[in-house]
Amino acid sequence: MEFLPVIVTSLLLFVLGIAMGFRAMRVLRLGKRQSLDVGRRQGYSVPVTIVILAQDQEQDLRNNLTDILSQDYGTEYYVSVIDIHSSDGTLSFLESMEERYHNLSHSSIPASARDISLQRLAITLGMRSAFTDWVIVAEAGCRPRSSRWLSAFMGQCTEEKDGVLGFAIRQGAGSGWQSYRSSYFRLWQQLLWLPFAISSVPPRADDCFFAYRRDRFLSHGGFASDANLLCGTASLLFNRNVLPGRCGASLSIEATLDGRDLTSHAWYRDRVYFMETLHQSRHVFLYRSLYFLHAALPWLLAFCSAWLLSSVPNPWGIVAGVLIVLLPMMTYSFTHFAACRHYGIRQLLMLCPVFHLMIPFWDLSAWLGWRFAKKNTFRKKFI
What is the pTM for the complete model shown? Predict the structure, then answer.
């Protein structure tokens, strides 16, 4: 009986670790099911406007815009590029492309625009100028994986949804340590928050790719409540305005986008900025609690394993202590690696446990960067 508390605690954490590992497979199963439905829903097509945000991204537009304008879609669609006062050859390139494609147009935000987040202003301009019910917002650095990308994505934009989250594969720059860790962290977060977004209030969203109803956007005033906040554009849009059960997610392989690479500095900046976004979000207590439990689980398992080994000094205690750590981490690693294989993300299976142990430290460094940042760091400065 003296060993009962440590045995019960270890067993509960062991079962929890296995359950959390299999929970991450929900997104992968849903993505595979949607991939099978793409062919059956090929005839589903409604008019849509694709708003692309660009700022000094002429090369990205040259690489990606033709693929977006050449989609195999059942009806006409429109592409609107919002240029955020670029200083390179973006405008001249767009003017030359408009001569070739009748469904392409562009608008520009002047350099005199002040006192508002330029990203929010660009999305608002795109929403107001669109004349279709659904509007897709994407970054200029995103590229469709196939000519059926638009058909596959719009299959999830039904009457029952106010917004649909896209799945953008944004990998780290290069093929080394930075690439693997940023890819792991991003996908790990997506596997955790996407089920929340689908079943309840969206805790966050992906800034580089999402769809939203134009009339819904105009009815709640767009970003009226946080117009000058620089970060969390899509996350706060979905978190504050999409009702439970009204959020969809497009997870099939055909509907994904390849995003622009992130450098180490950009990855750190995004994590720090997300801390401010999380501070502004609503109804995310359950998500935050589960997030921290997921992140700390390997360390909790290791603690319980050491506790069990010291409390039950016999061969059975040693076997139980090893299995308590090994089996949940193997489940976590293999489910994550399966998702990487499915979506074509570079990852090494042996690095998954290592990266999972580092998640609390990545979050801590981001929190410290947010905590000691100046108050006006995250908002458009008044000029």
Answer: 0.89
Q: How confident is the model at residue 48 (pLDDT cuts 50, 70, 90)?
A: very high
Report strand pairing: 209-213 vs 163-165: antiparallel
CA distance 186 to 333: 15
Contact, 212 vs 237, CB < 8 A?
yes
Q: Position of tokens 């099978």?
A: 36
Tell the burial category of 316 from Cβ atoms under 10 Å away from its Cβ (0-12, 13-18, 19+).
exposed
> Which one-letter amino acid corresponds to residue 106?
H
Burial class (CB in 10 A: 0-12, 13-18, 19+), 133: middle
> Measured in Å, how far apart are the chain's first and last C-alpha atoms?
69
Using alpha carbons, list the distances in angstroms from residue 379 to 63, 83, 239, 326. Answer: 31, 21, 19, 44
Separation of alpha carbons 205 and 167, rounded Å: 10
pLDDT given at position 10: 65
Query: In angstroms, rounded to a whole number, what is the distance separating the alpha carbons of residues 232 and 273?
Result: 8
Chain-centroid distance, C-alpha 116 = 24
Phi (first) and psi of residue 151, to 5 degrees: -65, -45
Structure confidence at residue 1 (pLDDT): 46
Alpha-carbon distance 43 to 362, whole Å? Answer: 45
Report angle CA 82, 87, 90 to the nearest 5 degrees.
50
CB 175 within 8 A of CB 346: yes
Q: Which of 33, 136, 134 is nearest to 81 (CA)?
A: 136
Phi first, then psi: what are they for 297, rounded to 5°?
A: -55, -45
Dihedral in degrees, nearest 10, Cα atoms 285, 288, 291, 297: -80
Written as six digits, the tokens of 273 are: 């900025």
What percentage of the chain's residues is helix, strand, coil (to nearest 5)? 55, 10, 30
CA distance 357 to 360: 7
